[in-house]
User: What shape does this take?
Amino acid sequence: MNLIKTKAIFLKILPYKEFDSIVCFYTEKMGKVEVKIKGAKRIQSKLIGFCQPFVQSTLFIAKGKNIYHLIGGEIDKKFEKINCNYLKLFLVSYVFELVDKFTKLNKPEKIIFSLILKTMESIEEYKPGQAFIVLYAFIVKFISFLGYAPELIHCVNCNKKIKERTLFFNIKSGGVVCLDCHQNKKIKGSRLEFKTYELILLFLYKNFDFWMNKKKISLKNLKEATEFIDKLAQWHIDEELSSGKVLRQFIKIYA
Ligand SMILES: [Zn+2]
Assistant: This one.
């Protein structure tokens, strides 16, 4: 039997036959994978622990004829602070929804696995009011890893390095537009406040720990940056995530 040992993060549970479940995990070695858990709905099942969100496990997965089967495993880490905080719980659910929407089955991407795990660890540790900053840093990094990184250094029209503080963004072209190109109407862009632009760069290039010590972030720029990231993500997703509206409500409360 072909047995695979891999670290895994629970994404979602799918409806299945009476006592069994199909669980979708994001794994380090196999990427997103659907695994059948026999008897998962029986209370005495030893595998039931792997069917809960907000845990990181090491799983033993066997390749069956048509489907993978969970044979066993161990829970490495429980994210208890996420599990008992409504906002954190929601933020991580949003991460899971995004990962599920954007990734294909059985396509391993180690960097995506590390990003999800690091995001969960950061949301676990951050104060709730700051935790949603982690989510936005995650979104920009995630879509960039998938190949949709916004062009923030050079003008998407003339390729000139952006130096001036007055700049614009064209969502369709996926990048910044310099003042010259915007004024000469070569390409239209929406105004992007320089401080907001800097914040988006930080979201993209700084690691999550950076935000732990950063005390002062202008509320106005933060709101603009999150709106920008929302637009960018939606441009690529092509549909509103079911948790998108709730997320904006949270921002109103916490930002
Ligand atoms: Zn230009």
Observations:
- The pocket of zinc ion is lined by residues 155, 157-158, 160, 178, 180-181 (CB under 6 Å).
- The mean pLDDT is 86.
- Strands lie at 3-14, 21-27, 31-37, 55-63, 68-78, 167-170, 175-177, 190-192.
